[in-house]
Design goal:
The complex is a heterodimer of chains A (about 270) and B (about 325).
Chain A lengths: L7 E10 L2 E11 L3 E7 L5 H8 L7 E6 L2 E3 L4 H6 L2 E4 L11 H5 L6 E4 L2 E4 L1 H13 L18 H14 L4 E5 L7 H16 L3 E6 L2 H7 L2 E6 L2 E7 L5 H8 L6 H13 L10
Parallel strand pairs in A: 3-10, 3-11, 6-9, 9-10
Antiparallel strand pairs in A: 1-2, 1-4, 4-5, 7-8, 11-12
Helix pairs in contact in A: 5-6
Chain B lengths: L2 H5 L2 H25 L1 H26 L7 H18 L4 H25 L4 H24 L3 E3 L4 H7 L2 E2 L3 E2 L1 H18 L1 H11 L1 H6 L4 H27 L1 E3 L5 H12 L11 H21 L3 H32 L2
Antiparallel strand pairs in B: 1-4, 2-3
Helix pairs in contact in B: 2-13, 2-14, 3-8, 3-9, 3-11, 3-12, 3-13, 4-5, 4-6, 4-11, 5-6, 5-11, 8-9, 12-13, 13-14
Classes of the chains: A alpha/beta (about 270), B mainly alpha (about 325).
Chain lengths: ~270, ~325
């Protein structure tokens, strides 16, 4: 691995809420044009980690660096100003707003007519549609459509396109594929690769190992708030990763079994064993 | 805009509702209701409640309630009457005092809603009772009475309490002006987008850099000012301020807003819808007197309208979302 300066780096970060230690001694790096997959079961501390990255929480101890420079975020806005963008599971969170309007929430384009500032709907719609189409989602062609009318994958894509449009350098994707079907998920994964190609550092949170393996360059597994493993693409097999996530239990077999069952049974899981 | 796009707009339901209700009462109310007496009677009512419904609607779009308007109306009215009637200060001092009371209560509402975790419904019920008690207590303390009279000068009277042609209250014009200003704010100015965003998801809106607290406080101040304005206009019209009264504005303003298609949980609505909802409400409210029907039927109709409006809003919204999905 070449010794370039990481876009975002954590050194020995700890986070506790009162007496409860949630993150324990986390050191991580993510480079430009690289996808870091953050894996972990529910409750492993993934959410707390990304909230710390996004400036929602302040680390109890430890340091964060961007481009080798020490940073400290007091609020989410600070992180956003440095180019850290978070896209949540459901992407567009304003289901009843139009694509153009929600794309520009907080940074509305305006034009002037006399003393009045006017929301420039045409520019907003055109820019939003163009931005998302550049990511290959050509089905979105009308900025007046409501966010709620988009599919889950389209919403994710729109949210990612929005982050990139507004100059994000680090893209944090919080379980973007968790609620999606297979086809929708592959859309989103393709967009993750597109973002990576554009030189963004992507932090991809998931507990679906398949999705992580499809796009990841670098993997980190969180267990009970600590980094259980930190390895590069190709260093571990799918089964090993799944086992790691489950804390060493042989879940990998079950996982593959269920998945093969679902593939042959139109997406239905096997009935529970009695 | 295509026919389909018009059909799925929530305002369409409001227009249909208004037309149906109007035809119903026109059939029962006869010539008087269709003519100037009918129009002036429901427009006067619509203007009063409409001026309050506009900011209450905006608050609801942003996900908050304001119950306190019901006590701001008499409080502002009483303040202006005491300043200008009892102490004989010029009318504009009384008006500023009344508006000041409205703005102050609005600020307190906004402050409590944004700084505590108490739901706005509870906060504003609380402030409503506090303001109601203060109004009564201070009126009795200062004036020794629960009503204060005041005869405004001709200019003030013509601006705020005049009946055009002896029938149409000048507040109808104020209402139109308020509606235009609110339309600009919500649908044309970039800030309107923030109101929708806050109602959709406050947390995300804040992370997107929207000053959510200031905006919420601002909306509450607007609502307080509008309620105070109505209280002052009532004083100038009827030349007397009462400590009671104004309670009707609480439910009436919310009903106008909901009949007008604003989503109770926030995130959707329009100024045109609120205006249409207000007109519908006023037509029923006044039409009942012209129709000769039992006035209890009016309450039944308003209740049914409210339920129908909520149901149809949900229907239209689902339709709008589905329409967008299908469209290639």
């Amino acid at each position: 691995m070449t010794e370039k300066t990481a876009v975002l780096e954590l050194r020995n970060v700890n986070k506790s809420f009162g007496p409860i230690d949630v993150l324990h001694d986390i050191s991580l790096k993510v480079n430009a044009g690289e996808v870091l997959c953050l894996l972990g079961d529910n409750g492993a501390g993934k959410s707390t980690l990304i909230k710390t990255l996004a400036g929602v929480h302040k680390p109890t101890s430890g340091e964060m660096f961007m481009d080798g420079e020490k940073v400290s975020f007091e609020r989410p806005k600070d992180a956003a100003d440095r180019g850290i963008a978070t896209v949540h599971q459901f992407g567009g969170t304003f289901p009843l707003m139009t694509i153009g309007r929600s794309f520009f929430v907080g940074v509305e384009p305006t034009k002037r007519i006399g003393p009045f500032r006017i929301f420039d709907r045409k520019t907003a719609n055109e820019t939003a549609v163009k931005a998302v189409q550049e990511f290959g989602i050509t089905r979105i062609d009308d900025g007046d459509r409501l966010i709620g009318g988009l599919s889950g994958g389209e919403r994710q894509s729109l949210a990612i396109a929005r982050a990139v449009h507004f100059g994000a350098r680090v893209l944090i994707l919080d379980e973007p594929t968790a609620a999606l079907g297979v086809k929708q998920a592959s859309h989103v994964l393709r967009i993750v690769l597109e973002a990576k190609k554009r030189g963004l550092a992507v932090i991809f949170i998931t507990h679906q190992v398949t999705h992580a393996m499809a796009v990841g360059d670098h993997f980190a597994v969180l267990i009970r708030g600590a980094l259980a493993a930190n390895f590069m693409r190709g260093e571990k097999s799918r089964e090993e990763i799944t086992d790691l996530m489950a804390g060493g239990e042989a879940l990998a077999d079950l996982d593959t079994e269920i998945e093969s069952h679902m593939e042959t049974h139109e997406g239905h899981p096997p009935p529970p064993a009695h | 805009m295509s026919l389909g796009a018009i059909a799925i707009r929530p305002e369409t339901a409001s227009v249909v509702g208004l037309v149906v209700v109007y035809i119903f009462f026109a059939a029962f109310g006869g010539a008087a209701f269709i003519g100037a007496p009918g129009w002036s009677s429901w427009l006067n009512i619509a203007a009063e409640v409409g001026i309050i419904a506009l900011p209450v609607g905006l608050l609801m779009i942003s996900g908050e309630f304001d119950i306190s308007v019901g006590s701001i109306v008499p409080a502002a009215s009483m303040t202006a009457a005491i300043i200008s009637g009892h102490y004989d200060w010029p009318a504009y001092v009384g008006i500023l005092g009344g508006l000041g009371v409205g703005a102050l209560v609005g600020y307190v509402n906004g402050f409590l809603v944004t700084r505590t975790a108490i739901p706005s419904l509870i906060v504003t019920i609380g402030t409503m009772f506090v303001v109601m008690g203060l109004t009564l207590g201070l009126a009795v303390l200062i004036k020794g009475s629960t009503s204060v009279s005041y005869v405004p000068d001709p200019i003030t009277k013509s601006l705020l309490g005049h009946f055009i042609n002896g029938m149409f209250n000048v507040s109808i014009i104020w209402w139109i002006a308020f509606a235009v200003a609110f339309y600009y704010f919500l649908h044309i100015s970039p800030m309107g987008n923030w109101v929708f965003a806050i109602g959709g998801d406050r947390e995300t809106a804040r992370n997107a850099g929207i000053p959510t607290r200031q905006l919420t406080v601002g909306l509450y101040i607007l609502s307080g000012l509008a309620a105070a304005f109505v209280g002052i206009a009532q004083l100038m019209t009827y030349q007397s301020a009462q400590v009671a009264g104004g309670q009707a504005f609480i439910f009436n303003s919310i009903m106008c807003v909901v009949i007008g298609g604003v989503l109770l949980t926030g995130g959707a609505g329009s100024v045109i819808g609120i205006v249409l909802g207000t007109m519908t409400f006023a037509v029923v409210n006044q039409g009942i007197f012209f129709s000769g029907l039992d006035s209890n039927i009016g309450s039944i109709i308003i209740g049914a309208l409210l339920l129908a409006a909520v149901l149809s809003n949900d229907g239209f919204r689902a339709l709008a979302l589905r329409y967008a999905t299908k469209k290639k």
